[in-house]
Amino acid sequence: MKFGVGIPTCTEGMMYPVPYATPEGLVKMCQEAEALGFDHVMGNDHVSTQAYVRRSFPEPPTFYEPMLAMAFAAARTTRLRLATGVVVLPLRHPVTLAKQAATFDHFSGGRLILGVGVGAYREEFAAMYGGGEGQVRGDMVTEHLEALHLLFAKRPARLTPATPFPATHRGSGFWSGFG
Residue 95: CB partners within 8 Å, gap ≥ 6? Predict the structure, then answer.
């Protein structure tokens, strides 16, 4: 059995006080998790702060982009796997995400676990898509997953110019979560 630890990429005001997360603190958490023998750390994804969080604190919380924050931590750790838990697929373009994930995986020595999902907050989706009317997030997840699988498995994929393959070839490299 393997265990992981959540890191505060986008949880200030929801699970942690404001202020809480700093780049140095995040790296220290990852280094401690590695030293204690944890398998992975997991950071979640939010593009914007939810209205209830903004109303609760005088200063806005710090929400880091998870793959960039974990890339910073990857440079300061050696074996710890780094997971997105989860990247909100409807808020990402699948070609760009595939390129980011493959690049991260190469630079980290194959330590990325790409967790994807539909996202918990419809208000984020609405903010990105001008209300989101007529858009079905679940359909977008299905379409984006198909695109990601194609981009990681086929050369050449017919979606965009070449995207590097992830360094890891352990079957399905996706974790999926809904909530």
Answer: 147, 151, 159, 160, 163
